[in-house]
Amino acid sequence: MSQQEKISVYNLADLKNTTDDAIPNYLNSLGFTQSHTLSDVRLGLGYLALLTAAACFAWDYQLGFEATKLPTAAAVALYAVLNTALTVWIFFVERGAVYVGTSPDGRARVRLTSASVRGAVPEYRLTAEVSDAATGRVRETVEVRRGFNAWFDAAGRFVAAPFQVVLAGQVGVIGQADPKRREAAAAEGKGTTGRVVDESVSAGYTPEMLAALQGAEATGAEAEAGKKGGKRRKA
Amino acid sequence: MLSSLGNPRQAAAQLLNFGLIISTAFMMWKGLSIFTDSSSPIVVVLSGSMEPAMQRGDLLVLWNRNIWAETAVGDIVVYSVKGKDIPIVHRVVRKFGVGPKAKLLTKGDNNHSDDTELYAKGQDFLERENILGTVVGYVPFVGYVTIMLSEHPWMKTAMLGIMGLVVMLQRE
């Protein structure tokens, strides 16, 4: 289920990317419908630009510079336009969205954005924007901040359960779709109510619990390999 | 990491990032070509024939539009003649006539004789169309990297390999 691949816990980009990648898996499994429009438009613009450059290269290679000045000038202009559009799309429309989708009941639209990790603070900063699917009006914006150690064990393996508990506990729509995880979040949060995330209260999983959870999720063979102190398994 | 290759959109995005780096570099070069009207707007000096003005490894910026004045005696130009791939940077020392059919003679500052020897067989002078551009700017020594790369081809392979690997393994 979750990635069995280990990452370096000292690589902040890896921590963020692995966490980002886990979001679609989780939400889609809850019945959310993921929308790929944002990335599809980005890919479309990008590949169109790439195609323009490739065509320009081809005729330049075949016919030489002097004979193809006019089309080359047109291609350069088109490439500049496409690239500008792409940049605008990435910075003003996509704005770092890692997941856009509709809730299982089809009434709410969620947009999850994770901020790139700055400095040396190993913290995942996720913004969830929930809007009405019909009118598009923003219902709520939730900001979740949590240390990566809440869902990565010491070896750098991602453990899905605590991460899902954080999402279900903090974002109402996700909690509705996954009551079990929301209850777990409420149980461990005792006292911390609402949207305020107290940094000192981690997801409630100690490193030992994370390791145990990982063991439970791993296949038997891998759990065994873990017991032997990380010795390489024979193929 | 490489695991992203399991997701077609992510794989396509990664390939796109790599492609855009190359295509942007190429299109910037072409844009500069169009702007300067020169097929090769930036060249590297390969020989010492223009010393002391230009050393081996200097990077030259060319301009090939005669908006205000024609190419004149004293200009340093880059030209290429039929049958020889490598462009040559030398100074115009004689000019006969005006317009695109004017006859130009060039010579390297550091050479004893003029360039008639270097021209194509049967060619005694240059015309405007042989010229790739007039030198309008230069950056000393920077071009030595390309001289190193072309004289030691293994460096080129190694550099491309390392660049490719970095792009493959990094997402940000």
Automatic annotation (TrEMBL), chain A:
Pfam families with a match to the protein in the record: SPC25
GO terms, biological process: protein targeting to ER; signal peptide processing
Location of the protein in the cell: Endoplasmic reticulum membrane
Location of the region described as Disordered in the Swiss-Prot/TrEMBL record: 216-235
Origin superkingdom: Eukaryota
Predominant location: endoplasmic reticulum
Keywords: Endoplasmic reticulum, Membrane, Transmembrane, Transmembrane helix
Membrane topology: Multi-pass membrane protein
Membrane spanning stretches: 43-61, 73-93
Listed GO CC annotations: signal peptidase complex
Biological function: Component of the signal peptidase complex (SPC) which catalyzes the cleavage of N-terminal signal sequences from nascent proteins as they are translocated into the lumen of the endoplasmic reticulum. Enhances the enzymatic activity of SPC and facilitates the interactions between different components of the translocation site.
Similarity comment: family membership: Belongs to the SPCS2 family.
Name of this chain's protein: Signal peptidase complex subunit 2
From TrEMBL, chain B:
A GO term, aspect molecular function: serine-type endopeptidase activity
Keyword annotations from UniProtKB, A to Z: Endoplasmic reticulum, Hydrolase, Membrane, Protease, Signal-anchor, Transmembrane, Transmembrane helix
UniProt-listed CDD domains: S26_SPase_I
EC number: 3.4.21.89
GO term, biological process aspect, one: signal peptide processing
Tree of life domain: Eukaryota
Transmembrane segments: 12-29, 130-147
Gene3D superfamilies, per database record: Umud Fragment, subunit A
Bilayer topology annotation: Single-pass type II membrane protein
GO terms for cellular component: signal peptidase complex
EC primary class: hydrolase
Compartment(s) of residence: Endoplasmic reticulum membrane
SUPFAM superfamilies: LexA/Signal peptidase (SSF51306)
Catalytic activity: Cleavage of hydrophobic, N-terminal signal or leader sequences from secreted and periplasmic proteins
Family: Belongs to the peptidase S26B family.
Binding partners and assembly: Component of the signal peptidase complex (SPC) composed of a catalytic subunit SEC11 and three accessory subunits SPC1, SPC2 and SPC3. The complex induces a local thinning of the ER membrane which is used to measure the length of the signal peptide (SP) h-region of protein substrates. This ensures the selectivity of the complex towards h-regions shorter than 18-20 amino acids. SPC associates with the translocon complex.
PANTHER family, A to Z: SIGNAL PEPTIDASE COMPLEX CATALYTIC SUBUNIT SEC11
Biological role: Catalytic component of the signal peptidase complex (SPC) which catalyzes the cleavage of N-terminal signal sequences from nascent proteins as they are translocated into the lumen of the endoplasmic reticulum. Specifically cleaves N-terminal signal peptides that contain a hydrophobic alpha-helix (h-region) shorter than 18-20 amino acids.
Protein name: Signal peptidase complex catalytic subunit SEC11
Classification lineage: Eukaryota, Fungi, Dikarya, Ascomycota, Pezizomycotina
